[in-house]
């Protein structure tokens, strides 16, 4: 059995590692190869390329890297056609993976797309087009399969692996002990993203917000988990230009950092879902390049007014979102400060988070592996 996978960033690498481990139970002699990060390599995937080579976000950013990405996809397609995998699994990264999946499907290779593109946020027409690329779509969220069903595309809700990774009530005291943090200090977890471009755009603003917050919150401690060594180097470089007292950078351990924190300030993305599963109040912020923002807004490409997953899944604004022009130190600080108290609003978040958490449980990696195995058996 030969199984090829392409994961485009840190979150995809984590999903891929869990999937590979579950697939290996069913196919112990299978070979795994493709584009991956450290977690998938540790799970036994032969890394032809590293995931960070695909980690580009935003229209303007993609245009700048487009020649390199197209060359990489062409070379990868040729190598995969020569290797002849039994199945190809594209994990997220739709702009890269869907074109690759389409070429492989046309060549008779079974294709799976793991993590539905955000068809509920962008254009539902993408769901219809995805059927030309994927024999099967594995969905992390329960509202997604009905969209594909309307277009006659096989799709399965497999649950979100992160929903299995978090306890219902993560232990703050235990997380603080594990990280060597003060048991009683007010702690802000700061997660400016796992992409270098995100960190460059957001971290200076986040640090300025923390300065303002510390003036109103004596004894504040800030903990920043770096996704990898490359991110850590950039973070440390930015901290030289924008120092912040009582800030500690740790390698990875983001889930522990979230559990240890009173409040989390984060870049919009998977981290918002993780913070919700950690049952912590949060402020979600994001800023993309001015050109990308202008194109998205002027072309009417967004069809939702909620951006973070907790708000999308709740279908109401349960967490604060400060995007683009609203992503300023003053607005971030003003939104964070009330969350350190014990208000009814903060207390009401936990049962709402918990209800969504339970809806997202569906077996995760085991369900995804079972669906892939079923596809392979149907030949």
Architecture overview:
With 379 residues, the protein is of the alpha/beta class. It folds into two domains: 2-159 and 362-377, 3-Layer(aba) Sandwich (Rossmann fold); 165-359, Rossmann fold (3-Layer(aba) Sandwich), CATH 3.40.50.2000. 49% of the residues lie in helices and 17% in strands. The protein has helices spanning 10-26, 38-42, 59-83, 94-106, 125-130, 145-149, 161-165, 172-179, 196-216, 229-241, 254-260, 270-277, 290-298, 309-314, 329-336, 344-359, 365-377, and strands at 2-7, 31-36, 46-50, 87-91, 110-114, 136-139, 155-157, 187-191, 221-226, 247-251, 263-267, 282-286, 320-323. Helix 2 (38-42) links the parallel strand 2 (31-36) and strand 3. Helix 3 packs parallel to helix 4 (94-106), helix 9 packs across helix 10 and helix 9 (196-216) packs across helix 15 (329-336). The longest helix has 25 residues, at 59-83. The mean pLDDT is 90.
